[in-house]
Amino acid sequence: MKHSPRLRTALSCTALVASLGAGATACGGGGNPLSARPYDAAQQVAFNQAVGRRPVDPDKPLEITAKAGGGRITDVTAVDTYGRRLAGELTAKGDRWHSTAPMAAGVRYTVQVGTEDERGAPGLRTLTFDTTPAKRLLNVVFGPEAGKYGVGQPITAELSEAVKDKAARAVIERGLVVQTPPGVEGAWYWVDDKHLHYRPKEYWPAHSTVSVRSNLEGVRISDRLHGAASKPVELRIGDRVEVTTDAAAHYLEFRRNGEVINTIPVTTGKPGFSTRNGVKVVLGKQYFVQMRGDTVGIGGDEYYNLPVYYATRVTWSGEYVHAAPWSVDSQGYENVSHGCTGMSTGNAAWFYENITEGDIVKVINSIGDDMDVFGNGYGDWNMDWKKWREGSALLKGTPDGRSPTDQARLRPQV
């Protein structure tokens, strides 16, 4: 008699079961404990906090233990509202798991505890609980505002509270996430206790996108201080514009993406008012500025009160690149300004239209002082990369403690 394939399989399985005995099966996984669906391990594990009843203290470590005679814990995952995993450690025997980092405040955790009993059958315990909100919050405000910038634009972060402790600073740095193009190396630098700057080793790649966000919401920074939500910022980087002003040659060279596209005769600061040497970053543009000497402490025979057009600002203390029709005869020949870079109105209009906030303006061969790294605009690029890295709490060294921009000095000079 012929049997169908299905019937032959059933008969073969029956025969094999008979030959193996009642204690084993080769067809169907019902007898293999590892093939079973995880059982509810609620009675197998215990938590050190009264989870599920009321919000728990995030500063208290989370501990999960296997009850006596209930098998062992195989793995634990604890994930908060924002998808951040809570770090923890499981003993070799599987009898205890404890968190090795503080929980976040004011969030909800979902915890999954994997177990197995004496037979090796898997169990699973899943629960959620909230943590109490933080009493003190650290706010972070990023700068500049979202928009299009040049390749020299640093990212800034201003904290609502001063942070001096190195360990707390390291927590903050880890939570300030800067997304850059592949292969771009960058680092934060602590300007002082409340201000950080971020820049890459080299200028940003042209036509790239850079973004910064905080991952500190709810994260414990120090005793009873937790991170608050922050607004992210995205920067669109334009062409690579590099301007070099040679104060000795009295000419300005304008490069875009490595190509010289204009050379302009200029005048810079005369002796006693010499233009600062070094790399500066364009801070903004103003079509018209009324410039007065007394706003920067200049009076007497050197006093001026002039309407200035096509003004591109490069320092907070009042250094601009602007139209200076009164000094056209000196442009290309001698330095006669009070620190600014002057040019004809036509050249200034062209410069104004082709320069962008965040572009690089470098001055060389001036007899003036060097540009400050911090405090008078963005002189960040005047610090070498090795020293910059030393200003990071995650890398080596400590910051120099100098103050950021002094708003009281926001005055023009010509």
Structure description:
With 414 residues, the chain is mainly β. The protein has 3 domains: 34-130, Immunoglobulin-like; 136-237, Immunoglobulin-like, CATH 2.60.40.3710; 241-378, L,D-transpeptidase catalytic domain-like (Beta Barrel), CATH 2.40.440. The protein is 10% helix and 34% strand. The protein is built from 4 helices and 28 strands. It has helices at residues 5-20, 166-175, 345-354, 385-390, and strands at residues 39-40, 45-47, 63-66, 72-79, 88-90, 96-99, 108-116, 122-130, 136-138, 140-143, 147-149, 155-159, 176-179, 186-190, 195-200, 209-214, 220-222, 225-227, 233-237, 241-246, 251-256, 259-265, 278-281, 284-292, 305-313, 320-323, 341-343, 360-364. A 5-stranded mixed sheet has the order 22-21-20-28-23, with no helix packed on it. Strand 17 and strand 18 (225-227) form a beta hairpin. The chain is elongated. The N and C termini lie far apart (111 Å).
Number of extended strands? 28
- The chain-level structural class is mainly beta
Distance between termini? 111 Å
Major beta-sheet overview? 5 strands, mixed
The outline comes out as: elongated
Strand order of the largest sheet: 22-21-20-28-23
Number of helices: 4
CATH-defined topology of the largest domain: L,D-transpeptidase catalytic domain-like
CATH superfamily of the largest domain: L,D-transpeptidase catalytic domain-like
